[in-house]
Amino acid sequence: MKKPLIAILVAGLMAPALSFAEKGDIVVRARVTHISPDESSKLKAISTLDHSLEVESNTIPEIDFSYYITKNIAAELILATGSRHDVNIVGSAAQKLGSVNLLPPTLTAQWHFNPDQTFDPYAGAGLSYVRAMDNGLYSATIPTGIHIDRNMWGPAIQAGIDVNLQMPNKKLLLNVLENFCIPCQIDSPI
């Protein structure tokens, strides 16, 4: 409970430095990112027991840098802190498998639809890289072990909106973003 609250407070204190961005500008944003991993597995295919894989979600702070190539086109580098995810089998064969730590930087190209307006929706696409920094997954009942690739790549798709706030002597914006990345795969008989 403390970790998401701290992340929200940090994001609230760190405001972006620029709004109504122009060609050549760099916009810095602080956000809170919720990572909800895909929990699909092969458990049901190899067993008649009623169980499934459960991967814990996590909320972490994130900072990103957008460089405006033109008024409408920006390149964004998203840098998040590492996220820790507990992995368990739930159901009739319940067991704790351990945890994995992931670092997920993402690079996207964005199209800003209304760069000079108060509400500036945008869409982006790019590439996400996930570095598994620690693989602490283990099960005595899986003789071949559980493998997570150290380096994973996949597409990233995003849609968001910047709300440019009009304040005297300050350039601030509020940002809402939905980001979808598909790089992470766990290889094991489960």
Salient structural properties:
190 residues, mainly beta, Porin, 2 helices, elongated, disordered N terminus
Compact summary:
With 190 residues, the protein is mainly β. It is 8% helix and 57% strand. It has helices spanning 2-13, 43-46, and strands at residues 26-35, 51-55, 58-68, 73-80, 83-91, 95-103, 106-112, 119-135, 147-148, 151-167, 170-181, 186-187.
Compute the gyration radius: what is it?
20 Å
Protein structure class? mainly beta
Low-confidence stretches are 1-19, 185-190
Question: Please, how many domains?
Answer: 1
Return the CATH class: Mainly Beta
Largest sheet: 10 strands, antiparallel
Level-2 CATH architecture: Beta Barrel
Helix content: under 10%
Number of DSSP E strands: 12
Number of alpha- plus pi-helical segments = 2
Strand content: over 45%
Secondary-structure element order, N to C: HEHEEEEEEEEEEE
Shape descriptor reads elongated
Terminus-to-terminus distance: 30 Å
What name does the CATH topology carry?
Porin
Q: How confident is the prediction overall: mean pLDDT?
A: 76
